[in-house]
């Protein structure tokens, strides 16, 4: 479950694949191919066939009711003891309040977490980021789960959950957001991942929560939405030098640098860094905006203070305060997720900003996002990434974002949507 795969270099899709799908216009052939693909995917996902998630075989069947797939179990019937691990390993609860534990988790993820398919980049979540991501209001320490080698005490696997209120259509559902599933590279054959997923599910159930949201860069049963990553070059020379992007046809480096150059200063009057006093206004803006989407978080002021208020080197947020009436009319935010550059003698880190939540009411969205790009470039980010969720598609091409070849698939556990969503119907950003 649960990894974000977005550090792929932008690349055009295969033109041969496109032309093949256009010439094969037979509806029957297309349907047969989809069934065949679904069957082969099911065979690859025996674990997920046992879980209360949408199954490939049910795609297109609208007879199922929308909502929970299985009813809650009485808490007394939830398994009270952890699942069995291979004899050499033991469960631990990771106390992310401590510097020592944070460092252990950081090292495990830094060396073993999500890489691009070409093994050129690997996510490098900072310790500050991990503490922010894993300690929101009402979090449970018991949902931060590690596996140690009994003899050496080395941390070799990790998975987490944090509580969230997610609105699905009109219903607000208490869920867990599950993330950071990571198994040491040398233990990938031990089949630890399904045990980690079952154990975090057990601990979530013990808190009387029965649904979860998660993302993955791979297809498992069954996505509620599939989103595309887009990348906006801020430091094009470095991105080309490290292989994240390529020099375009008939383009020189100097022309490319000129193409992506941004103004030195933001242009929106009243554009400034968000402060604690802005939390009530930003909460009103974000609640009103997210009510438009099929699936979105239900944020209150405590959530906004935690998730949106700026934290150095973790999350940046800017508001637009009307110079005339001093009303907060708009805001934008992005979080910091660098990647380690593998095997490059000149560069070690790719500093990436990821578009988070943005609400534009008085300022055009394109102008607001362009100001976000300007401040990110000023802070020496190399690239600005965005998913095509919410209204993001409206500014991507205009602001010179290019499509990556990484997809991010969204999933709900024990909750069925009758129809998959378009990315523009999704108002949820998972880290």
From TrEMBL:
Enzyme Commission number: 2.3.1.97
Keywords tagged on the record: Acyltransferase, Transferase
Region Disordered, annotated ranges: 1-26
Top EC class, one word: transferase
One Gene Ontology molecular-function label: glycylpeptide N-tetradecanoyltransferase activity
Entry's family note: Belongs to the NMT family.
PANTHER family linked to this entry: GLYCYLPEPTIDE N-TETRADECANOYLTRANSFERASE, N-MYRISTOYL TRANSFERASE
The protein's name: Glycylpeptide N-tetradecanoyltransferase
């Amino acid at each position: 479950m649960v990894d974000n795969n977005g550090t792929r270099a932008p690349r055009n899709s295969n033109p041969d694949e496109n032309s093949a799908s256009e010439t094969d216009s037979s509806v029957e052939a297309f349907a047969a191919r989809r069934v065949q693909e679904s069957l082969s995917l099911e065979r690859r996902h025996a674990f997920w066939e046992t879980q209360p998630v949408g199954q490939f075989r049910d795609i297109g069947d609208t007879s199922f009711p929308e909502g929970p797939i299985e009813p809650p179990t009485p808490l007394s019937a939830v398994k009270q003891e952890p699942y069995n691990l291979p004899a050499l390993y033991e469960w631990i609860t990771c106390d992310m309040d401590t510097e020592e534990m944070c460092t252990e988790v950081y090292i495990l993820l830094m060396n073993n977490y999500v890489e691009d398919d070409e093994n050129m980049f690997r996510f490098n979540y900072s310790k500050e980021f991990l503490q922010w991501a894993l300690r929101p209001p009402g979090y449970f320490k018991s949902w931060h789960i590690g596996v140690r080698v009994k003899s050496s005490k080395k941390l070799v696997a990790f998975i987490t959950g944090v509580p969230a209120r997610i609105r699905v259509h009109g219903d607000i559902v208490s869920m867990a957001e599950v993330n950071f599933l990571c198994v040491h590279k040398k233990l990938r054959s031990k089949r630890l991942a399904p045990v980690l997923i079952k154990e975090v599910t057990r601990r979530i159930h013990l808190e009387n929560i029965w649904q979860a949201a998660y993302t993955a860069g791979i297809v498992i049963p069954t996505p509620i939405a599939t989103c595309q990553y887009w990348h906006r070059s801020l430091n094009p020379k470095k991105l080309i030098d490290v292989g994240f992007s390529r020099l375009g046809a008939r383009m020189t480096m100097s022309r490319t640098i000129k193409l992506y150059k941004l103004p030195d200063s933001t242009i929106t009057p009243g554009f400034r860094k968000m402060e604690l006093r802005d939390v009530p206004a930003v909460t009103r803006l974000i609640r009103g905006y997210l009510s438009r989407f099929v699936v979105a978080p239900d944020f209150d002021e405590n959530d906004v203070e935690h998730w949106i208020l700026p934290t150095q080197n973790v999350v940046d947020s800017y508001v637009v305060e009307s110079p005339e009436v001093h009303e907060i009319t708009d805001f934008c935010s992005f979080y910091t997720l660098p990647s380690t550059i593998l095997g490059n003698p000149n560069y070690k880190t790719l500093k990436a900003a990821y578009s988070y939540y943005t609400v534009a009411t008085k300022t055009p969205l394109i102008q607001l996002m362009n100001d976000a790009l300007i401040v990110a470039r000023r802070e020496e980010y190399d690239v600005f990434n965005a998913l095509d969720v919410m209204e993001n598609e409206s500014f991507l091409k205009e602001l010179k974002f290019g499509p990556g070849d990484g997809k991010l698939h969204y999933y709900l556990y024990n909750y069925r949507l009758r129809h998959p969503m378009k990315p523009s119907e999704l108002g949820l950003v998972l880290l």
